[in-house]
Amino acid sequence: MRRGILSGTVAFLLASALAGCQATGTDPITLPSMPTPVAPESVTQGIGSAGIGDPYFPTYGNGGFDVQTYDLAIKLTADGSIEGVATLTAKATAALQQFNLDLRGLKVAGVQVGADPATFSRDGDELVIRPKVALTSGSAFTTIIRYAGKPSEISSLTLGQTGFRRINGVEYMAGEPESASTWFPVNDHPSDKAKYTMSFTVPEGEEVISNGVLAGKQSAGGWTTWKWQVGSPMASYLSTFAVGDLRTVESTHNGKPVRIAIAKTITGSQVEAAVAKTPEICDYFEQYFGAYPFEAYGAIVVDDPELGFSLETQTRPIYPASMVDNGDRGGVVAHELAHQWFGDSVSVKQWADIWLNEGFATYAQWMWQEHAGGPTVSGQFESQYRNEFSPIWRTPPAAPGASKVFSSSVYQRGGMALHALRLKVGDEKFFSILRTWAAEKRDGNGTTSEFQAVAERISGQSLQALFQDWLYDTDRPAHP
Ligand SMILES: [Zn+2]
Questions:
Q1: Which CATH number is associated with domain 39-244?
Q2: Ion ligand 1, residues whose Cβ is below 5 A away
């Protein structure tokens, strides 16, 4: 995710209250802190917990099971409502009489677990499900949820308005760390990645774009169903769709489909030219990070002046037009594409480790900008380092606090930490560390200490002091 310069109300709210605006060098004000983190027992006496145990976001995700696949069949009506059937296959990690899914708003019509109807209730953003027959630990089970309603926007702790948005003829979904629960029942945490099949039924003539590969398209009775398939495990916040007045540009690259959708209200050729660099940028990163990890390439560009960020939605990042047409030599596009390796293929286990996404994507963005004739990586490092009073020195990137997961320290000092590592171990070992990390954790999750272990193994030296100085301390490290 990459924040941009905003206009309008959201911009005002963000700039004045929330944004770690890099342009002014201020960090977000500290919001009321989350409850003291106590990792919940994931299952107590057969009752799955309402959170997966993330200290920063205690109610995100759920305890007691692991989802393997989501099969979502969603009909989008003209008034912005959805009718959905979600079929989840999962494995119980404990004996379960009851378990939860995350779902915001949306009315549930019925739940089935296995062959039997299940009882259910709502508790805030939790859907509480009681199967007719209790699940045994280790058993595989299927849950079907029928639901309907209008997906909501989220007033995000960190990003302003996110979630479901309708603007300039396009409806789309984007948000981090949450958003998926606004449109389907989900174990909403990146530590439970799953494969997805998503079918969207829309009025004939409207375009649909989502993650992965288009696996079918059928029309009947004035409606068209678009089926999208995601073959690699995906974190829930990386799922997305956009529907409506979109023009789509298709091609292939390295034998994989490239699909770029741009809101029709965006005119001129600049935006299209910027996202058309997607394959070239991915090829550049392959030299340093290893093979592109997914089955497709693409982009979604929306005409939404109030969207204050771009997001690395898997295989198909979402950008507001203003962020790809801003003269930064493709920096934002490079940032979201680097996330396909760092964030999407290798995901965080806990949100506290978000620098593993954002610091890496920022560093990769600096690399691309240098390659494209912009400032050098070391120039970017030095200009940040020079600012002795920057707020990045007070916020540790690997323990920023829940309200600062998207603050400038996570991005800039996170990227600088990688540069300090590069200076310490040398180019050859540095890029070997990045490639090894991407390969060993591919389609999985990682933590900062696991990354440190990989870096120490490849470099053959202790990096404890460097990681402490750059990622955990609350002052400016010595110049490397
Ligand atoms: Zn990012």
A1: 2.60.40.1730
A2: 1-2, 358, 361
